[in-house]
Amino acid sequence: MKKRILVIDDEESIRWVLGKCLEKEGYTVEYGEDGTQGIDKAKSGNFSSIILDITMPDMTGFDVLAEIRSEGIDSPVIIITAQNTVKNAIEAMKQGAYDYIAKPFDLDEVKITVARAIESYENSKKLDILLDENNEVETLQDIVGQSQAMLNIYKMIGRVAERDITVLVNGESGTGKELVARAIHSNSTRRDKKLVAVNIAAIPKDLLESELFGYQKGAFTGASISRQGRFEEADGGTLHLDEIGDMPHELQTKLLRILEEKKLYRLGSEKPSPIDVRIVASTNKNLEKEVEEGNFREDLYYRLNAITIKIPPLRNRTEDVIPLTEHFLSKYGQELGVGTRTLSDEAKETIASYSWPGNVRELENIIKRLLVLSSDTMITKETLIDAAPHLEGKLRRDRESLENLIRDELNFLLDSKDGQSSEKVYETIIKKVEKPLIELVLDITKGNKKKAASILGINRNTLSKKMEELEFQEKDNEE
Fold first, then answer.
1. By residue range, what is the domain housing residue 460?
2. Cross-strand partners of 319
3. Do the beta carbons of residue 120 and residue 150 sit within 8 Å?
4. Chain segment 180-220, per-residue pLDDT in tens
5. End residue of a domain, out of 253, 275, 310
6. Which residues contact 81 (CB under 8 A, 6 or more apart)?
7. For residue 276, what is the DSSP state?
8. CB-neighbour burial class of residue 25 (10 A; exposed 0-12, middle 13-18, buried 19+)
9. Is residue 354 located within the same domain as residue 273?
10. I want to staple 100 with a disulfide (CB 3.0 to 4.6 A). Which of 76, 79, 345, 409 is the partner?
11. pTM, full prediction
């Protein structure tokens, strides 16, 4: 059965071009000539994707999107606009659009975006079915996001959960590695047994061996009784070894032996105990690099790396920031007994414009602090900045630094022009400021080169070459 696409645009030429393009890809295409007709069409049937113009005579595309969502229509919406601004991009994502495309658009980009939107939508539906079958809806309640990256993670959790293999979860601090480990356990055949989490980095090295493997009475001074370790505590269930990259080399050897032999030796004991534990390891380090530098055993790395789930930093999935914020407002609003809080549009823009170096954990902590410090039911930009001044500070400081740099260079060059042409002066200034300018635009677009290139008025390949010339550290976000 052909997938159905709804195109809502008041321009007949746009509808015609998009229709022909998508029909060639095998889709069935229907049309709405304005917002009202588009809403009626959307209500009439299940569409795999909806393409929606922002500027129409009767209502804006954002109004149409809000109405569609209020009717419970969850088809992925792709916004098209002739006004390619950061504000429109933020607004589109904020209101639940899958993506946006600027006019004049490239038809190949349209085809790729539609295909990705449909795949993302179908994956989310498969996840819903998986969770319903396992009756484990609650296990993913704190993993929030509908970005393609997060949908891929949900799909991976569904694939690996019931397969009793070792999983390595990789991601920066604060991205939610423990939540993924919990979701894997809760959807596995071991769900009725314990999930035991151990933060390797938080335990002093001289205590780590006994903490993990336990000890026999008399094994060391003060060991007046025998004690089981975390491995035995997790027997039959799952052991989450967080920050595995910080495990001392000698304990890496013991861990490898346990994985290979399925038995362990308590500290001070020569008698092995059989052990049945599934390992989910996580780290914020690049273990391949750690192996190359001799800090991590290569054979252990390959045993742990049967399946890897990589969690992207929050700056690389900006469409998840507002849903996460609203999730934490609801969750902690209930827990703290402060009632429902909503965000103003300006507050949302401030949150969406920040790069979140501390990832989801930083966002979560700020929302907790905000709920305690503010009694307003509507969270404005001002109340947000009062609770967390640094949200606005970095971009403001970057802009001020850039302005000051341009001003200083311009004054210097004009004072010592020495017969240089205006073009030469301009060229010299550009060379001085192009790196901080590109850094600022990439910061605003959360590392998205395509959007950054559009703002800078160059193509993406030119931007990539310029970044290479200027020796940028790569933090590309293609989404």
1. 392-469
2. none
3. no
4. 999 899 888 898 999 999 999 888 888 888 889 888 887 77
5. 310
6. 53, 54, 55, 61, 88, 92, 100, 101, 102, 103
7. -
8. middle
9. no
10. 79
11. 0.57
